[in-house]
Design a protein that fits this description.
It is a single chain. This protein is an alpha+beta fold. It has 3 domains: about 90 residues, Acyl-CoA dehydrogenase/oxidase, N-terminal domain (Butyryl-Coa Dehydrogenase, subunit A, domain 1), CATH 1.10.540; about 110 residues, Butyryl-CoA Dehydrogenase, subunit A, domain 2 (Beta Barrel); about 160 residues, Butyryl-CoA Dehydrogenase, subunit A, domain 3 (Up-down Bundle). Helices cover about 50% and strands about 15% of the residues. It has 11 helices and 11 strands. Helix 5 packs antiparallel against helix 7 and helix 7 runs parallel beside helix 9. The N terminus is likely disordered.
C-alpha cells in the first residue's frame, strides 16, 4: 500500500462507479428500513452483513485497488458520489467517514509496519477506526483549530504516555483502530503535535458518553472520551514527533472533499425522491411539478447540484496535482455543504407533510446533510480561513 495515486483512467473509473451505483441501489437501499439501527447508527452486525455483500460483489473499498494503489481524487469522486446514494452506502462499500480519511492518512504517512498492522484491516473491511483530535469546547480545547490542543503526550522510556479529553469522536465505540493526536511540550526534539496508532478498545481510553445528535448514520455515534495514562509504544507514532499538525492537514483537506462527494450522492437521491413525488402528486387539478412554486424549487435543485458537482471536480483536480489544496478544500466544503443543504431543504418543502415523516428517506437525508455544514469545520471557520488568506496574499502583493 504505497499511498501513490496514479489513477486507473476514465474507462476503469466508470466501470467501478457503475458497479457501486448498481450495488447501492439494488442491494443497500432495501436495508434502509432494517431495524438494526438506532440513534447512534447502524449496528456492527448490520454493517458487517452489508460489507460481506460488497466483498462478494468485488466492490469493497473500491477507491483502493488490490495492489494498494489509490484512485486519483477525481476518480475517487466518481465512485464516492455513487456510494452516497444511500446513507448506508458508504458503510457498505467501506468509503465512509472517518475510515476513508484515516485510510488516506495511513497510506500517505504510515510506515510499512503500521500499514500492515493498522491499515490493512481497515482496507479489508474487518473493522472501523476513529480519529481522536477534537476536544471539549468548555476546556478551550482543539476544535476547528488544532493548535489549541490540550491533550498531552510525554516520552517515558520506549513508550509515550498520553492524557487528555476528546469530544465528538465519531465511531469510537466499537472501533478497532484509533489515531490519537496529542501535544508534547518537550524541548529535546520530541516536542510539538504528535499522532499515535492504538489498538481499540483500550482501558486507558474511556467513553464517558455518546452524544445525542440530530444525525444517526454513523456506527458508534459521536463520543466524549477521557484518556488516562495511555501508554503507546514509540514505534506506534505516526510519522515523526512534532509533525502532527502537518499530518492533520494531509488528512483533512481530502477528507473535507470526500464528505462533499458522499453527501452529493445523498442529495441526488433526495432530489430523485422529491421529483418523483412532485410528478405523481396532484393538487388543484394538476401535478405539483406544474405549479411554478414547486417546479422552480426542483429547477433550483438541479442548479445547485450541478454547481456542487463542478466544485467537487475542480477541487479534486487541484489535489491531484499534489498540492495540499487547503484553501481549495475549504472553498469546496463551504460551497458544496451549503448548496446540498439547500437541496435537501427544498426536497422536504416540495413533499410537504410527507417530507417531514419517515415514510421516505428525505427527512433523514435532510438531517444528515444539515450536519455536513458542521463536520470538518463549520462554514464560518472556513470563510474566516479564506479571509485570512486574502489578507496574506494582498500583503505579499503590496510588499512585492
Amino acid at each position: 500500500m504505497s499511498g501513490a495515486y496514479e489513477g486507473v483512467g476514465p474507462e476503469k473509473t466508470a466501470e467501478i462507479a457503475a458497479k457501486v451505483e448498481a450495488f447501492v441501489r439494488d442491494v443497500i437501499v432495501p436495508y434502509e428500513t432494517d431495524p438494526r439501527q438506532d440513534q447512534h447508527g447502524p449496528t456492527d452486525e448490520l454493517v458487517a452483513e452489508m460489507k460481506g455483500k460488497a466483498r462478494a460483489a468485488g466492490i469493497l473499498t473500491p477507491h483502493i485497488l488490490p495492489d494498494g494503489r489509490h484512485l486519483s481524487q477525481r476518480e475517487t469522486a466518481a465512485v464516492l458520489k455513487k456510494s452516497g446514494l444511500s446513507i448506508l452506502g458508504p458503510l457498505a462499500v467501506n468509503t465512509n467517514a472517518p475510515d476513508e480519511g484515516n485510510m488516506f492518512l495511513l497510506g500517505k504517512v504510515g510506515s510499512p509496519e503500521i500499514k500492515e498492522r493498522f491499515l490493512k484491516p481497515l482496507v479489508e473491511g474487518h473493522g472501523r477506526s476513529a480519529f481522536f483530535m477534537t476536544e471539549p469546547a468548555d476546556e478551550d480545547g482543539a476544535g476547528s483549530d488544532p493548535s489549541m490542543m490540550k491533550t498531552t503526550c510525554r516520552l517515558d522510556g520506549n513508550h509515550w504516555v498520553i492524557n487528555g479529553r476528546k469530544k465528538f469522536i465519531t465511531g469510537a465505540e466499537g472501533a478497532i483502530v484509533g489515531i490519537v493526536m496529542a501535544k508534547s511540550e518537550a524541548t529535546d526534539g520530541t516536542g510539538g503535535a504528535c499522532m499515535f496508532l492504538v489498538d481499540l478498545p483500550d482501558p486507558a481510553i474511556r467513553i464517558t458518553r455518546v452524544l445525542e445528535t440530530i444525525d444517526d448514520s454513523m456506527p458508534g455515534g459521536h463520543a466524549e472520551i477521557e484518556i488516562d495514562n495511555l501508554r503507546v509504544p514509540a514505534d506506534q507514532m505516526l510519522g515523526v514527533a512534532g509533525e502532527g499538525f502537518k499530518y492533520a492537514q494531509i488528512r483533512l483537506s481530502p477528507a473535507r472533499l470526500s464528505h462533499c462527494m458522499r453527501w452529493y450522492g445523498a442529495a441526488v437521491r433526495a432530489n430523485e425522491i422529491a421529483t418523483d413525488y412532485a410528478n405523481r402528486r396532484k393538487a388543484f387539478g394538476k401535478p405539483l411539478v406544474d405549479h411554478e412554486g414547486v417546479g422552480f424549487m426542483l429547477a433550483d435543485n438541479l442548479i445547485d447540484l450541478k454547481q456542487a458537482e463542478l466544485m467537487i471536480d475542480w477541487c479534486a483536480d487541484v489535489l491531484d496535482t499534489g498540492e495540499l489544496g487547503t484553501a481549495e478544500s475549504s472553498m469546496a466544503k463551504v460551497a458544496v455543504s451549503e448548496a446540498l443543504s439547500r437541496v435537501a431543504d427544498r426536497c422536504v418543502q416540495v413533499m410537504g407533510g410527507t417530507g417531514i415523516t419517515r415514510d421516505t428517506m428525505v427527512e433523514k437525508f435532510y438531517r444528515e446533510i444539515r450536519c455536513f455544514r458542521i463536520y470538518d469545520g463549520p462554514t464560518e471557520v472556513h470563510k474566516w480561513s479564506l479571509a485570512k488568506k486574502i489578507k496574506r496574499d494582498w500583503t505579499r502583493a503590496q510588499a512585492g
